[in-house]
Structure formats: C-alpha cells, structure tokens
Amino acid sequence: MKNKTLINLLSMVVFIFALFLFASCSSSSSNETSNNTSEAANTTTSESVESSSIETIVDVYFTITFKDYDGTILQASSVKSGDMPSYNKSDPTRENDDDYSYTFSGWSPSITNAVEDVVYTAIYTSEALPYNVTINLDGGTSSQTKLQFKTDKVSKEMLPFDVKKKGYAFKGYELNNVKVYDEKGNVIND
Fold first, then answer.
1. Which residues sit opposite 179 in a β-bridge?
2. Furthest-apart CA atoms within the chain: distance in Å
3. How far apart are CA 64 and CA 59, in angstroms?
4. What number is the average pLDDT over the span 92-115?
5. pLDDT at 94 over 70
6. SS3 75
7. What DSSP string describes 14-64?
8. Could you give the angle at the alpha carbon of 63 between the alpha carbons of 61 and 69, nearest 5°?
9. What is the mean pLDDT of residues 18-23?
10. What does DSSP say about strands 73-80 and 172-175: parallel, antiparallel, or unpaired?
C-alpha cells in the first residue's frame, strides 16, 4: 500500500505540475497575444501618426507664371499652397505702336492665394496717340502751323482757315498734290 500511495502522490504532483505548466503556457500565450495586439495597435497608431506627420510636413507647391501680353514669360516660380504669389520685378512695359501708347494696369486673372497652377497675363490700358500734321503754308501765314490730332480723319473744324499770303488767294489744302479741302473747309477728297 505504501507503493500505491507513493504512486498516487507522485501522480498527483505530476498532474499539478502539468496543470501549472499548462496554466503558465496559457497565461504566457495570452500575455503574448495581448502584447502582440498591443504592439500591433502601437504600430498602427505609430504608423498613422507618422502618416499624418508626413502629410503635414510635405507642403504642396504650385507653379505660378507671369506672362506679358505677347506670351513672353516674365517670371515663373513655385508658390506654397495658400500663399499669395507676387511679381518680384518692376511693372512690365509695352512699347507704343503706331496708334497707341500702353500703360500697365494689372494682371488677368486677378492674383489670389495659390490653390492650383496659374498663368497671370499682364494687361495694359491703351491711349490713342495723336497724329502729327504739319501744314506747309508755302510762304503764307496762319495762327496755327503745326497741329496734333487724335484721329486720322482731319475735319474742317481742326484746320486753320485764316491762311494769308500776299498776292494770293487761299484755295484750300492739298495732300500729295491732291486737293482734300477747299478754301471754306469743305472736304473734296477723303
């Protein structure tokens, strides 16, 4: 009976030891699972924080181009999203042509904060240039001998008809040997 009691006692110790091991493994496994889940959550949180940080660290830039009326690029630069672009040179200029003088008056479209790539084009106001007309009095005299007109059509009211030359009667005006106005200012030829 002593042997049987000893065997039962040993069996009981082995059983308790086995239970202890099983409980330890199960607890360890549960802790590992819990730790792994926690680490996964931390990794995900860390990754999402890093992802958010990347989004705020990486700025978006747009290409802003300033062009003249003829398409010539005056300035091109990258401007951070939301910032106000600016033209960093003196105002553009446009040469006068035969009919008009030009003054810079702004940009089209109007300059706004950068939200996309934009091309701004210089706009100018124009003013008609006067035509210079010199009257050759062929030795005669008048109160006006040099006139300026803002049109290429000279009218009777624009010309001085008080031309005088001793021994001659005023008969009108000629252009390239073609009579254009008579002595009273009536149009003969256009």
1. 174
2. 173
3. 16
4. 94
5. yes
6. strand
7. HHHHHHHHHHHHHHHHHHHHHHHHHHHHHHHHHHHHHHHHHHHHS--EEEE
8. 155
9. 66
10. unpaired
Cα–chain-centroid distance for residue 150? 36
Question: What pTM did the predictor assign?
Answer: 0.47
Alpha helix (H) residue ranges in the chain: 2-57
Each residue of 125-142: pLDDT tens digit? 999 887 666 677 777 777
% the chain with pLDDT above 90:
34
Between residues 185 and 176, the one the model is more confident about = 176
Closest by CA to 140, choosing from 181, 171, 180, 186, is 171
| Six-digit token string for 60 | 């978006």
CB atoms under 10 Å from CB of 159, counted, come to 20
d(CA 190, CA 188): 7
Phi–psi pair at 6, nearest 5 degrees: -65, -40
Structure tokens at 56: 């705020």
Say how far apart CA 35 and CA 25 lie, in whole Å: 15
Rounded Cα gap, residues 70 and 118, in angstroms: 17
Sole residue written with tokens 């040993």: 10
- In this prediction, residue 40 has a pLDDT band, given cuts at 50, 70 and 90, of very low
Q: Please list, in sequence order, all residues whose beta carbon lies within 8 angstroms of the beta carbon of residue 78, skipping any fewer than 6 positions away.
A: 61, 62, 63, 64
What confidence tier does 188 reach under pLDDT thresholds 50, 70, 90? confident
